[in-house]
Amino acid sequence: MTAFRALLRRELWSFAISPFSWVLIGFWMLLNGLFFSILLRSADVQSNLGMLPTYLFGSGGLLAFLLLPVIPPLLTLRLFAEEHRLGTLEPLLTAPISDAAVVLAKYVAACLFFLVFWLGVLALFVLLQFYDAPLDWPRILSAFSGALLASALFLAVGLWTSSWGGNLILAAAGGAGVNYMLLFLPAMFSGGTGRTAAVARAMNIPQMLEVGFAAGLIDSYAVLYFPLLALLFLYLTWMRLVSRRWVP
Amino acid sequence: MIETTCLSKRYGALLALDEVSLRVEAGEILGFLGPNGAGKSTTLRILSGFMPPTSGSASIDGLDLLRESLKARQRIGYLPENFVAPQEMRVVEYLRFRGRLKGLSRRAARQRVTEIGERLGLGERMRQTFGALSKGFRQRVGLADALLADPPALLLDEPFGGLDPLQRQEFRDFLRDLAKVGKAVLFSSHVLPEVEEIADRVAILHQGRLQVDGTIEELGKRAHEEAPVQFRTEGDPVVLEQLLAQDLLPEEASSLKREGPFLTVLPASAERRQFLFRWLAAQEQEISEYRTLAPTLDDLFRSSTA
Protein backbone atom coordinates (compact mmCIF):
# COMPACT_ATOMS: atom_id res chain seq x y z
CA MET A 1 0.00 0.00 0.00
CA THR A 2 2.91 2.34 0.77
CA ALA A 3 4.30 1.75 -2.71
CA PHE A 4 0.87 2.30 -4.30
CA ARG A 5 0.38 5.59 -2.47
CA ALA A 6 3.90 6.72 -3.32
CA LEU A 7 3.40 6.02 -7.03
CA LEU A 8 -0.06 7.62 -7.02
CA ARG A 9 1.36 10.78 -5.45
CA ARG A 10 4.23 10.88 -7.90
CA GLU A 11 1.94 10.47 -10.90
CA LEU A 12 -0.40 13.19 -9.66
CA TRP A 13 2.57 15.46 -9.04
CA SER A 14 3.91 14.71 -12.53
CA PHE A 15 0.55 15.59 -14.08
CA ALA A 16 0.41 18.77 -12.02
CA ILE A 17 3.83 20.03 -13.10
CA SER A 18 3.65 18.91 -16.72
CA PRO A 19 3.14 21.89 -19.06
CA PHE A 20 1.49 19.51 -21.53
CA SER A 21 -1.24 18.67 -18.99
CA TRP A 22 -2.01 22.36 -18.55
CA VAL A 23 -2.02 22.95 -22.29
CA LEU A 24 -4.63 20.19 -22.54
CA ILE A 25 -6.68 21.67 -19.69
CA GLY A 26 -6.42 25.13 -21.27
CA PHE A 27 -7.50 23.79 -24.66
CA TRP A 28 -10.34 21.85 -23.08
CA MET A 29 -11.58 24.81 -21.04
CA LEU A 30 -11.25 27.24 -23.91
CA LEU A 31 -13.35 25.10 -26.24
CA ASN A 32 -15.89 24.24 -23.55
CA GLY A 33 -16.10 27.87 -22.47
CA LEU A 34 -16.68 29.03 -26.04
CA PHE A 35 -19.23 26.28 -26.56
CA PHE A 36 -20.95 27.24 -23.31
CA SER A 37 -21.22 30.91 -24.29
CA ILE A 38 -22.55 29.99 -27.76
CA LEU A 39 -25.11 27.66 -26.17
CA LEU A 40 -26.29 30.36 -23.79
CA ARG A 41 -27.08 32.59 -26.75
CA SER A 42 -28.99 29.90 -28.59
CA ALA A 43 -32.79 30.06 -28.54
CA ASP A 44 -33.10 26.33 -27.67
CA VAL A 45 -31.11 26.65 -24.48
CA GLN A 46 -32.57 30.04 -23.49
CA SER A 47 -36.02 28.51 -23.60
CA ASN A 48 -34.93 25.36 -21.79
CA LEU A 49 -31.82 25.48 -19.60
CA GLY A 50 -32.32 21.77 -18.92
CA MET A 51 -30.71 21.13 -22.32
CA LEU A 52 -27.33 22.42 -21.08
CA PRO A 53 -26.17 19.24 -19.26
CA THR A 54 -26.99 17.20 -22.37
CA TYR A 55 -24.87 19.47 -24.51
CA LEU A 56 -21.92 19.79 -22.16
CA PHE A 57 -21.74 16.37 -20.52
CA GLY A 58 -23.62 14.15 -22.90
CA SER A 59 -23.94 13.32 -26.53
CA GLY A 60 -26.04 16.38 -27.29
CA GLY A 61 -22.98 18.39 -28.13
CA LEU A 62 -20.60 17.51 -30.90
CA LEU A 63 -17.78 18.93 -28.81
CA ALA A 64 -17.86 16.17 -26.19
CA PHE A 65 -17.67 13.59 -28.97
CA LEU A 66 -14.76 15.30 -30.63
CA LEU A 67 -12.71 15.92 -27.51
CA LEU A 68 -13.56 13.16 -25.10
CA PRO A 69 -12.07 10.20 -26.99
CA VAL A 70 -8.89 12.17 -27.81
CA ILE A 71 -7.92 13.98 -24.61
CA PRO A 72 -7.62 10.95 -22.27
CA PRO A 73 -5.08 9.10 -24.45
CA LEU A 74 -3.08 12.32 -24.79
CA LEU A 75 -3.03 12.55 -21.01
CA THR A 76 -2.19 8.89 -20.39
CA LEU A 77 0.48 8.51 -23.06
CA ARG A 78 3.15 9.64 -20.61
CA LEU A 79 2.19 6.97 -18.07
CA PHE A 80 3.88 4.07 -19.82
CA ALA A 81 4.90 5.07 -23.36
CA GLU A 82 6.93 8.08 -22.26
CA GLU A 83 8.45 6.21 -19.33
CA HIS A 84 9.41 3.49 -21.78
CA ARG A 85 10.90 6.02 -24.19
CA LEU A 86 12.86 7.88 -21.49
CA GLY A 87 14.13 4.71 -19.81
CA THR A 88 12.46 5.33 -16.45
CA LEU A 89 10.24 2.27 -16.79
CA GLU A 90 13.10 -0.11 -15.92
CA PRO A 91 13.74 1.35 -12.44
CA LEU A 92 9.99 1.37 -11.81
CA LEU A 93 9.37 -2.22 -12.86
CA THR A 94 12.37 -3.54 -10.94
CA ALA A 95 11.17 -1.89 -7.73
CA PRO A 96 9.31 -4.11 -5.25
CA ILE A 97 5.83 -3.07 -6.34
CA SER A 98 3.34 -5.40 -7.98
CA ASP A 99 2.37 -4.86 -11.60
CA ALA A 100 -1.28 -4.52 -10.54
CA ALA A 101 -0.37 -1.72 -8.12
CA VAL A 102 1.60 0.06 -10.87
CA VAL A 103 -1.37 -0.09 -13.25
CA LEU A 104 -3.88 0.97 -10.60
CA ALA A 105 -1.79 3.83 -9.22
CA LYS A 106 -1.26 5.27 -12.68
CA TYR A 107 -4.92 4.82 -13.58
CA VAL A 108 -6.26 6.37 -10.39
CA ALA A 109 -3.88 9.31 -10.83
CA ALA A 110 -5.10 9.84 -14.40
CA CYS A 111 -8.74 9.65 -13.26
CA LEU A 112 -8.19 12.11 -10.42
CA PHE A 113 -6.41 14.53 -12.70
CA PHE A 114 -9.07 14.23 -15.37
CA LEU A 115 -11.61 15.15 -12.73
CA VAL A 116 -10.07 18.65 -12.90
CA PHE A 117 -11.10 18.82 -16.57
CA TRP A 118 -14.73 18.07 -15.76
CA LEU A 119 -14.79 20.18 -12.59
CA GLY A 120 -13.87 23.08 -14.85
CA VAL A 121 -16.99 22.42 -16.92
CA LEU A 122 -19.08 21.97 -13.79
CA ALA A 123 -17.77 25.36 -12.60
CA LEU A 124 -19.52 26.94 -15.58
CA PHE A 125 -22.84 25.80 -14.11
CA VAL A 126 -21.86 27.14 -10.70
CA LEU A 127 -21.11 30.46 -12.40
CA LEU A 128 -24.53 30.40 -14.01
CA GLN A 129 -26.09 29.74 -10.61
CA PHE A 130 -24.65 33.04 -9.39
CA TYR A 131 -26.88 34.73 -11.96
CA ASP A 132 -29.89 32.95 -10.44
CA ALA A 133 -30.43 30.72 -13.44
CA PRO A 134 -33.07 28.06 -12.75
CA LEU A 135 -30.78 25.04 -12.97
CA ASP A 136 -31.81 21.44 -12.45
CA TRP A 137 -28.89 20.35 -10.26
CA PRO A 138 -29.82 16.66 -9.88
CA ARG A 139 -29.89 16.39 -13.66
CA ILE A 140 -26.61 18.30 -14.00
CA LEU A 141 -24.92 16.03 -11.47
CA SER A 142 -26.34 12.95 -13.14
CA ALA A 143 -24.94 14.10 -16.52
CA PHE A 144 -21.67 14.95 -14.78
CA SER A 145 -21.49 11.38 -13.38
CA GLY A 146 -22.07 9.94 -16.86
CA ALA A 147 -19.27 12.08 -18.26
CA LEU A 148 -16.96 10.92 -15.48
CA LEU A 149 -17.76 7.25 -16.08
CA ALA A 150 -17.21 7.57 -19.84
CA SER A 151 -13.95 9.43 -19.17
CA ALA A 152 -12.81 6.68 -16.78
CA LEU A 153 -13.35 4.16 -19.58
CA PHE A 154 -11.47 6.25 -22.13
CA LEU A 155 -8.61 6.76 -19.69
CA ALA A 156 -8.36 2.99 -19.19
CA VAL A 157 -8.15 2.58 -22.96
CA GLY A 158 -5.47 5.28 -23.09
CA LEU A 159 -3.49 3.54 -20.36
CA TRP A 160 -3.64 0.28 -22.29
CA THR A 161 -2.42 1.82 -25.56
CA SER A 162 0.29 3.65 -23.61
CA SER A 163 1.61 0.26 -22.47
CA TRP A 164 2.12 -0.89 -26.07
CA GLY A 165 5.66 0.52 -26.18
CA GLY A 166 7.68 3.71 -26.41
CA ASN A 167 5.93 5.19 -29.45
CA LEU A 168 3.97 8.22 -28.22
CA ILE A 169 2.11 8.75 -31.50
CA LEU A 170 0.99 5.14 -31.54
CA ALA A 171 -0.12 5.41 -27.91
CA ALA A 172 -2.18 8.56 -28.52
CA ALA A 173 -3.57 7.64 -31.94
CA GLY A 174 -4.25 4.06 -30.88
CA GLY A 175 -6.10 5.20 -27.77
CA ALA A 176 -8.16 7.77 -29.67
CA GLY A 177 -8.93 5.19 -32.36
CA VAL A 178 -10.15 2.57 -29.87
CA ASN A 179 -12.17 5.23 -28.03
CA TYR A 180 -13.86 6.39 -31.23
CA MET A 181 -14.66 2.77 -32.05
CA LEU A 182 -16.19 2.23 -28.62
CA LEU A 183 -18.20 5.40 -29.07
CA PHE A 184 -19.40 5.09 -32.65
CA LEU A 185 -19.24 1.44 -33.76
CA PRO A 186 -22.12 0.23 -31.54
CA ALA A 187 -24.19 3.27 -32.55
CA MET A 188 -23.65 2.38 -36.21
CA PHE A 189 -24.89 -1.18 -35.79
CA SER A 190 -27.62 -0.60 -33.22
CA GLY A 191 -30.39 -0.03 -35.79
CA GLY A 192 -32.53 -2.93 -36.93
CA THR A 193 -33.12 -6.31 -35.35
CA GLY A 194 -31.03 -9.39 -34.71
CA ARG A 195 -28.31 -10.35 -32.27
CA THR A 196 -25.68 -7.91 -33.61
CA ALA A 197 -28.03 -4.98 -33.28
CA ALA A 198 -29.01 -6.10 -29.77
CA VAL A 199 -25.38 -6.34 -28.70
CA ALA A 200 -24.64 -2.97 -30.34
CA ARG A 201 -27.56 -1.39 -28.50
CA ALA A 202 -26.25 -2.80 -25.22
CA MET A 203 -22.91 -1.11 -25.94
CA ASN A 204 -24.30 2.18 -27.24
CA ILE A 205 -22.44 4.77 -25.18
CA PRO A 206 -24.05 7.89 -26.72
CA GLN A 207 -27.45 6.37 -25.94
CA MET A 208 -26.45 5.67 -22.34
CA LEU A 209 -25.19 9.22 -21.90
CA GLU A 210 -28.04 11.02 -23.61
CA VAL A 211 -31.09 8.98 -22.68
CA GLY A 212 -29.70 7.98 -19.31
CA PHE A 213 -27.29 10.23 -17.45
CA ALA A 214 -27.93 13.53 -19.27
CA ALA A 215 -31.68 13.05 -18.83
CA GLY A 216 -31.21 12.55 -15.10
CA LEU A 217 -31.80 8.80 -15.25
CA ILE A 218 -29.05 6.74 -13.70
CA ASP A 219 -29.37 3.25 -15.12
CA SER A 220 -27.66 0.52 -13.08
CA TYR A 221 -26.68 -1.23 -16.34
CA ALA A 222 -24.78 1.85 -17.52
CA VAL A 223 -23.31 2.37 -14.05
CA LEU A 224 -21.82 -1.14 -14.30
CA TYR A 225 -21.04 -1.07 -18.02
CA PHE A 226 -18.41 1.67 -17.89
CA PRO A 227 -16.41 0.37 -14.88
CA LEU A 228 -16.50 -3.21 -16.14
CA LEU A 229 -15.26 -2.25 -19.58
CA ALA A 230 -12.62 -0.02 -17.96
CA LEU A 231 -11.62 -3.01 -15.84
CA LEU A 232 -11.16 -5.07 -19.01
CA PHE A 233 -8.71 -2.51 -20.41
CA LEU A 234 -6.91 -2.27 -17.07
CA TYR A 235 -6.61 -6.05 -17.16
CA LEU A 236 -5.15 -5.85 -20.68
CA THR A 237 -2.66 -3.25 -19.44
CA TRP A 238 -1.71 -5.48 -16.52
CA MET A 239 -1.32 -8.42 -18.92
CA ARG A 240 1.01 -6.30 -21.01
CA LEU A 241 3.25 -5.61 -18.00
CA VAL A 242 3.06 -9.16 -16.77
CA SER A 243 3.95 -10.56 -20.18
CA ARG A 244 7.03 -8.32 -20.26
CA ARG A 245 8.15 -9.81 -16.96
CA TRP A 246 7.07 -13.41 -17.40
CA VAL A 247 6.86 -14.43 -21.03
CA PRO A 248 10.30 -15.52 -22.30
CA MET B 1 22.84 -14.97 -2.39
CA ILE B 2 22.76 -14.20 -6.13
CA GLU B 3 22.50 -17.31 -8.27
CA THR B 4 21.78 -18.23 -11.87
CA THR B 5 21.50 -21.79 -13.12
CA CYS B 6 21.82 -22.58 -16.82
CA LEU B 7 20.39 -19.18 -17.67
CA SER B 8 19.61 -18.71 -21.36
CA LYS B 9 18.01 -15.84 -23.19
CA ARG B 10 17.03 -15.79 -26.81
CA TYR B 11 15.96 -12.70 -28.79
CA GLY B 12 14.42 -14.26 -31.87
CA ALA B 13 17.24 -16.08 -33.64
CA LEU B 14 19.92 -14.48 -31.47
CA LEU B 15 21.10 -16.44 -28.46
CA ALA B 16 22.10 -13.66 -26.08
CA LEU B 17 22.81 -15.92 -23.09
CA ASP B 18 23.80 -19.55 -23.28
CA GLU B 19 23.41 -21.58 -20.09
CA VAL B 20 25.15 -19.17 -17.76
CA SER B 21 25.55 -20.38 -14.19
CA LEU B 22 26.84 -17.91 -11.63
CA ARG B 23 26.90 -17.57 -7.88
CA VAL B 24 27.74 -14.59 -5.69
CA GLU B 25 27.91 -15.15 -1.95
CA ALA B 26 27.15 -12.59 0.75
CA GLY B 27 30.12 -10.32 1.29
CA GLU B 28 31.54 -11.12 -2.11
CA ILE B 29 32.14 -8.82 -5.10
CA LEU B 30 31.90 -10.44 -8.51
CA GLY B 31 33.22 -8.48 -11.47
CA PHE B 32 31.31 -9.33 -14.59
CA LEU B 33 33.41 -8.76 -17.68
CA GLY B 34 32.72 -9.03 -21.35
CA PRO B 35 32.74 -7.02 -24.57
CA ASN B 36 29.67 -5.14 -25.76
CA GLY B 37 26.83 -7.52 -26.58
CA ALA B 38 28.32 -10.33 -24.51
CA GLY B 39 25.13 -10.64 -22.46
CA LYS B 40 26.13 -8.84 -19.24
CA SER B 41 23.23 -6.41 -19.21
CA THR B 42 20.82 -9.17 -20.19
CA THR B 43 21.98 -11.24 -17.22
CA LEU B 44 21.57 -8.29 -14.86
CA ARG B 45 18.16 -7.40 -16.28
CA ILE B 46 16.99 -10.96 -15.70
CA LEU B 47 18.39 -10.91 -12.17
CA SER B 48 16.65 -7.59 -11.50
CA GLY B 49 13.30 -9.12 -12.45
CA PHE B 50 12.86 -6.80 -15.43
CA MET B 51 12.79 -9.58 -18.01
CA PRO B 52 12.45 -13.35 -17.89
CA PRO B 53 14.99 -15.88 -19.14
CA THR B 54 14.11 -18.16 -22.02
CA SER B 55 15.26 -21.06 -19.90
CA GLY B 56 17.14 -21.68 -16.68
CA SER B 57 16.55 -20.00 -13.37
CA ALA B 58 17.73 -17.04 -11.36
CA SER B 59 17.31 -16.43 -7.67
CA ILE B 60 18.15 -13.87 -5.01
CA ASP B 61 18.58 -15.05 -1.47
CA GLY B 62 16.97 -18.35 -2.45
CA LEU B 63 13.89 -16.61 -3.92
CA ASP B 64 13.17 -17.49 -7.52
CA LEU B 65 12.90 -14.40 -9.72
CA LEU B 66 9.92 -15.81 -11.61
CA ARG B 67 7.91 -17.49 -8.88
CA GLU B 68 8.63 -15.04 -6.06
CA SER B 69 9.49 -11.95 -8.06
CA LEU B 70 8.17 -9.37 -5.61
CA LYS B 71 9.94 -10.84 -2.58
CA ALA B 72 13.13 -11.30 -4.60
CA ARG B 73 12.97 -7.69 -5.81
CA GLN B 74 12.72 -6.53 -2.19
CA ARG B 75 16.22 -7.95 -1.74
CA ILE B 76 17.76 -6.29 -4.77
CA GLY B 77 19.36 -2.94 -5.32
CA TYR B 78 19.68 -2.48 -9.07
CA LEU B 79 21.56 0.17 -10.98
CA PRO B 80 20.71 -0.15 -14.68
CA GLU B 81 23.18 0.85 -17.37
CA ASN B 82 22.38 4.47 -18.32
CA PHE B 83 20.31 5.08 -15.23
CA VAL B 84 17.60 7.69 -15.83
CA ALA B 85 15.18 9.38 -13.43
CA PRO B 86 12.41 11.83 -14.36
CA GLN B 87 14.24 14.93 -15.58
CA GLU B 88 12.00 17.42 -13.82
CA MET B 89 12.19 15.79 -10.38
CA ARG B 90 14.55 17.07 -7.73
CA VAL B 91 17.01 14.43 -6.56
CA VAL B 92 15.80 14.50 -2.96
CA GLU B 93 12.18 14.12 -4.04
CA TYR B 94 13.03 11.31 -6.41
CA LEU B 95 15.00 9.39 -3.78
CA ARG B 96 12.27 9.84 -1.17
CA PHE B 97 9.73 8.58 -3.69
CA ARG B 98 11.93 5.57 -4.44
CA GLY B 99 12.33 4.90 -0.73
CA ARG B 100 8.55 4.88 -0.31
CA LEU B 101 8.21 2.69 -3.40
CA LYS B 102 10.55 0.24 -1.70
CA GLY B 103 8.35 0.12 1.37
CA LEU B 104 10.12 2.57 3.69
CA SER B 105 7.97 4.71 5.96
CA ARG B 106 7.94 8.44 5.27
CA ARG B 107 10.28 9.14 8.18
CA ALA B 108 12.61 6.23 7.33
CA ALA B 109 12.75 7.33 3.70
CA ARG B 110 13.72 10.89 4.68
CA GLN B 111 16.38 9.64 7.09
CA ARG B 112 17.81 7.11 4.67
CA VAL B 113 17.94 9.59 1.78
CA THR B 114 19.88 12.02 3.97
CA GLU B 115 22.31 9.29 5.06
CA ILE B 116 22.91 7.92 1.58
CA GLY B 117 23.14 11.39 0.06
CA GLU B 118 25.87 12.31 2.53
CA ARG B 119 27.69 9.01 2.04
CA LEU B 120 27.70 9.40 -1.73
CA GLY B 121 28.61 13.08 -1.64
CA LEU B 122 25.43 14.28 -3.31
CA GLY B 123 25.34 17.35 -1.04
CA GLU B 124 23.86 20.36 -2.80
CA ARG B 125 22.95 18.24 -5.81
CA MET B 126 20.05 16.87 -3.75
CA ARG B 127 18.16 20.11 -4.41
CA GLN B 128 18.80 20.06 -8.16
CA THR B 129 16.60 18.41 -10.75
CA PHE B 130 17.87 15.16 -12.19
CA GLY B 131 18.04 16.73 -15.65
CA ALA B 132 20.60 19.28 -14.40
CA LEU B 133 23.07 16.67 -13.12
CA SER B 134 26.29 15.53 -14.79
CA LYS B 135 26.71 11.87 -15.75
CA GLY B 136 28.79 11.19 -12.65
CA PHE B 137 26.18 12.56 -10.30
CA ARG B 138 23.43 10.74 -12.15
CA GLN B 139 25.32 7.53 -11.48
CA ARG B 140 25.53 8.45 -7.82
CA VAL B 141 21.79 9.04 -7.71
CA GLY B 142 21.32 5.62 -9.32
CA LEU B 143 23.56 4.00 -6.74
CA ALA B 144 21.78 5.87 -3.94
CA ASP B 145 18.51 4.51 -5.31
CA ALA B 146 19.92 0.98 -5.36
CA LEU B 147 21.05 1.28 -1.74
CA LEU B 148 17.97 2.98 -0.26
CA ALA B 149 16.25 -0.07 1.16
CA ASP B 150 19.57 -1.55 2.33
CA PRO B 151 19.18 -4.67 0.14
CA PRO B 152 21.45 -7.67 0.65
CA ALA B 153 22.15 -8.04 -3.08
CA LEU B 154 23.40 -5.33 -5.42
CA LEU B 155 23.31 -5.55 -9.19
CA LEU B 156 25.28 -2.75 -10.79
CA ASP B 157 25.44 -2.46 -14.56
CA GLU B 158 28.55 -0.52 -15.61
CA PRO B 159 28.64 1.55 -12.41
CA PHE B 160 31.94 3.21 -13.32
CA GLY B 161 30.69 4.62 -16.62
CA GLY B 162 31.00 8.39 -16.83
CA LEU B 163 32.89 8.77 -13.54
CA ASP B 164 36.11 10.73 -13.27
CA PRO B 165 39.16 9.03 -11.64
CA LEU B 166 38.41 10.56 -8.23
CA GLN B 167 34.80 9.46 -8.35
CA ARG B 168 35.88 5.98 -9.43
CA GLN B 169 38.16 5.70 -6.44
CA GLU B 170 35.34 6.77 -4.11
CA PHE B 171 33.01 4.32 -5.83
CA ARG B 172 35.50 1.48 -5.45
CA ASP B 173 35.96 2.23 -1.75
CA PHE B 174 32.23 2.35 -1.36
CA LEU B 175 31.72 -1.03 -3.02
CA ARG B 176 34.40 -2.56 -0.80
CA ASP B 177 32.68 -1.16 2.28
CA LEU B 178 29.39 -2.64 1.12
CA ALA B 179 30.94 -6.07 0.70
CA LYS B 180 32.49 -5.79 4.17
CA VAL B 181 29.04 -5.38 5.69
CA GLY B 182 27.86 -8.54 3.94
CA LYS B 183 26.34 -7.34 0.67
CA ALA B 184 26.63 -9.55 -2.38
CA VAL B 185 27.76 -7.31 -5.21
CA LEU B 186 27.58 -8.23 -8.88
CA PHE B 187 28.83 -5.50 -11.16
CA SER B 188 29.59 -5.41 -14.84
CA SER B 189 32.43 -3.38 -16.24
CA HIS B 190 34.76 -2.81 -19.15
CA VAL B 191 37.42 -1.32 -16.91
CA LEU B 192 39.71 -4.26 -16.18
CA PRO B 193 42.06 -2.69 -13.63
CA GLU B 194 39.05 -1.67 -11.56
CA VAL B 195 37.67 -5.18 -11.63
CA GLU B 196 41.07 -6.57 -10.71
CA GLU B 197 41.36 -4.10 -7.86
CA ILE B 198 38.04 -4.59 -6.13
CA ALA B 199 36.49 -7.87 -7.26
CA ASP B 200 36.93 -11.04 -5.23
CA ARG B 201 35.89 -13.04 -8.25
CA VAL B 202 35.74 -12.46 -11.95
CA ALA B 203 33.39 -13.91 -14.54
CA ILE B 204 34.09 -13.34 -18.21
CA LEU B 205 31.22 -13.60 -20.62
CA HIS B 206 31.61 -13.79 -24.36
CA GLN B 207 28.89 -14.24 -26.95
CA GLY B 208 26.51 -15.27 -24.19
CA ARG B 209 28.76 -18.00 -22.78
CA LEU B 210 30.61 -17.92 -19.51
CA GLN B 211 34.27 -18.34 -20.45
CA VAL B 212 35.95 -17.81 -17.10
CA ASP B 213 34.71 -17.81 -13.51
CA GLY B 214 37.00 -17.76 -10.51
CA THR B 215 38.59 -15.75 -7.76
CA ILE B 216 41.36 -13.37 -8.67
CA GLU B 217 43.78 -15.77 -6.86
CA GLU B 218 42.44 -18.79 -8.71
CA LEU B 219 42.68 -17.04 -12.01
CA GLY B 220 46.18 -15.87 -11.15
CA LYS B 221 47.20 -19.40 -10.18
CA ARG B 222 45.52 -20.88 -13.21
CA ALA B 223 47.09 -18.27 -15.42
CA HIS B 224 50.45 -19.05 -13.87
CA GLU B 225 50.01 -22.79 -14.31
CA GLU B 226 48.88 -22.47 -17.85
CA ALA B 227 51.51 -19.93 -18.78
CA PRO B 228 54.54 -20.65 -20.97
CA VAL B 229 58.00 -20.54 -19.47
CA GLN B 230 60.73 -18.50 -21.05
CA PHE B 231 64.44 -18.71 -20.33
CA ARG B 232 67.64 -17.35 -21.70
CA THR B 233 70.83 -19.28 -21.96
CA GLU B 234 74.32 -17.87 -22.24
CA GLY B 235 75.34 -20.90 -24.33
CA ASP B 236 74.16 -21.93 -27.75
CA PRO B 237 70.32 -21.84 -27.73
CA VAL B 238 70.15 -24.14 -30.76
CA VAL B 239 71.99 -26.91 -28.92
CA LEU B 240 69.85 -26.47 -25.82
CA GLU B 241 66.70 -26.53 -27.93
CA GLN B 242 67.74 -29.84 -29.49
CA LEU B 243 68.56 -31.36 -26.10
CA LEU B 244 65.37 -30.13 -24.52
CA ALA B 245 63.17 -31.34 -27.39
CA GLN B 246 64.33 -34.90 -26.74
CA ASP B 247 63.06 -34.83 -23.13
CA LEU B 248 59.79 -32.99 -23.69
CA LEU B 249 56.39 -34.54 -24.16
CA PRO B 250 55.14 -34.29 -27.76
CA GLU B 251 52.62 -31.51 -26.95
CA GLU B 252 55.33 -29.60 -25.10
CA ALA B 253 57.80 -30.06 -27.94
CA SER B 254 55.33 -28.55 -30.37
CA SER B 255 55.15 -25.43 -28.20
CA LEU B 256 58.92 -25.04 -28.02
CA LYS B 257 60.06 -21.83 -29.70
CA ARG B 258 63.38 -20.10 -30.05
CA GLU B 259 63.66 -16.32 -30.38
CA GLY B 260 67.26 -15.13 -30.33
CA PRO B 261 68.79 -16.25 -27.02
CA PHE B 262 65.34 -17.03 -25.59
CA LEU B 263 63.62 -20.38 -25.53
CA THR B 264 59.91 -20.61 -24.75
CA VAL B 265 57.96 -23.72 -23.87
CA LEU B 266 54.52 -24.45 -22.44
CA PRO B 267 54.74 -27.19 -19.77
CA ALA B 268 51.89 -29.70 -19.86
CA SER B 269 51.29 -29.61 -16.09
CA ALA B 270 52.53 -28.24 -12.79
CA GLU B 271 54.71 -31.36 -12.38
CA ARG B 272 56.16 -30.87 -15.84
CA ARG B 273 56.89 -27.25 -14.91
CA GLN B 274 58.98 -28.54 -11.97
CA PHE B 275 60.58 -31.14 -14.21
CA LEU B 276 61.60 -28.41 -16.63
CA PHE B 277 63.10 -26.34 -13.85
CA ARG B 278 65.10 -29.37 -12.59
CA TRP B 279 66.14 -30.24 -16.13
CA LEU B 280 67.49 -26.76 -16.72
CA ALA B 281 69.30 -26.79 -13.41
CA ALA B 282 70.92 -30.11 -14.34
CA GLN B 283 72.29 -28.69 -17.59
CA GLU B 284 75.81 -27.49 -17.57
CA GLN B 285 74.81 -24.32 -19.33
CA GLU B 286 74.34 -21.06 -17.58
CA ILE B 287 70.72 -19.98 -17.49
CA SER B 288 70.73 -16.24 -17.03
CA GLU B 289 66.98 -15.59 -17.06
CA TYR B 290 63.94 -17.69 -16.23
CA ARG B 291 60.41 -16.35 -16.17
CA THR B 292 56.81 -17.43 -16.41
CA LEU B 293 54.85 -15.52 -19.02
CA ALA B 294 51.73 -15.37 -16.81
CA PRO B 295 48.93 -13.46 -18.50
CA THR B 296 47.33 -10.50 -16.80
CA LEU B 297 43.57 -10.28 -16.38
CA ASP B 298 43.68 -8.15 -19.49
CA ASP B 299 45.34 -11.02 -21.43
CA LEU B 300 42.86 -13.46 -19.99
CA PHE B 301 40.00 -11.20 -21.07
CA ARG B 302 41.45 -10.86 -24.55
CA SER B 303 42.08 -14.59 -24.96
CA SER B 304 38.63 -15.46 -23.57
CA THR B 305 36.85 -13.07 -25.88
CA ALA B 306 39.04 -13.47 -28.96
Explain what this protein looks like in three dimensions.
The complex is a heterodimer of chains A (248) and B (306). With 248 residues, chain A is mostly helical. Chain A has one domain (2-246). Chain A contains 14 helices and no strands. Chain A has helices spanning 2-17, 19-41, 43-47, 52-57, 62-67, 71-76, 78-86, 89-93, 99-130, 137-162, 168-189, 195-202, 205-212, 220-246. In chain A, helix 10 (137-162) packs across helix 11 and helix 10 (137-162) packs antiparallel against helix 13. Chain A is globular and about 60 Å long. Chain B is of the alpha/beta class and 306 residues long. Chain B has two domains: 2-216, P-loop containing nucleotide triphosphate hydrolases (Rossmann fold, 3-Layer(aba) Sandwich), CATH 3.40.50.300; 226-304, Alpha-Beta Plaits. In chain B, 40% of the residues lie in helices and 26% in strands. Chain B contains twelve helices and 14 strands. A six-stranded mixed sheet of chain B has the order 6-7-8-3-9-10, sandwiched between helices. In chain B, helix 3 crosses helix 4 (106-119). The relative contact order of chain B is 0.13. The mean pLDDT of chain B is 87. The A-B interface holds A 2-3, 5-7, 9-10, 14, 17-18, 86-88, 90-98, 244-248 and B 9-10, 45, 48-55, 66, 69-71, 73-74, 76, 78, 80, 82-88, 97-98, 100-105, 145, 149.
